[in-house]
Amino acid sequence: MIGFGLLAVFVVVTFALWREGLWSAMIMVLNLLFAASFAAAWYESLVALVQPRLASFDYLLDSLCLWGLFVIILLALSEATDRVSKTKVRFRRPVELFGCPIVAALAAWIMVCFTAASLHTAAVPRDLVQRTPEARMFFGLAPDRRWLQWVRGSSLSGPFARPDHAFDRDARFILNYATRRKQLEDMPALRVATP
Question: Cα–Cα distance between 173 and 133 in angstroms, integer?
Fold first, then answer.
């Protein structure tokens, strides 16, 4: 079921960007990559900031903060790039015809990778995301693992580096969230009782 949902994300994003043209698709690739990378690398800091005030929503905060950061950054970047790049660059017809679907598919793949990785943070039953933590999503392509590798590398030494607290340094993101979803499954209610 998750595989078909991710396939739908891929098809919708590819089609939407393909219709916009090569220039818009190239800009969106950069916007998506930056917004998703920044959100994935820094959402834990936002969770740590809001968690004391919203402790009863502990299982929802990770997913909400991750997607909230992503949406806000993507909207801000889209607005900025729209203002800076008011004129679309025109490409020769063969370049537009062959380049646009490739770039649109690249943007869609970034979106699928981010979405797949973010599913692990969702407050859903453990087996809904993956039957086992070792299972590979999206028909064996494992976009969640690809995205986690990207963010881990970029938070260690890339533009989103966090030397003091690198993202998922021990590569246990999937296992930790699988355990967390199992704990949520065993709870009588979604909200955590606060003392």
Answer: 10
Distance CA 80, CA 132 (A): 41
Residue 140 region by backbone torsions, left for phi larger than 0, else alpha for psi between -120 and 50, else beta: left
Entry pTM: 0.88
51 contacts: CB under 8 Å, gap ≥ 6: 58, 61
pLDDT band at 184 (very low <50, low <70, confident <90, very high): confident
CA 54 to chain CA centroid, nearest Å? 23
Name the DSSP letter for residue 193.
P
Q: Are 176 and 157 in contact (CB under 8 A)?
A: no
Helices 143-157, 93-119: crossing angle, 10 deg rounding: 90
Place of tokens 């919708």: 12
How many residues can be counted in the chain?
195
Residue 95 reports pLDDT greater than 60: yes
CB neighbours (10 Å) of residue 102? 12
**Confidence band, pLDDT 50/70/90 cuts, at residue 1:** confident
Q: Which amino acid is at 126?
A: R
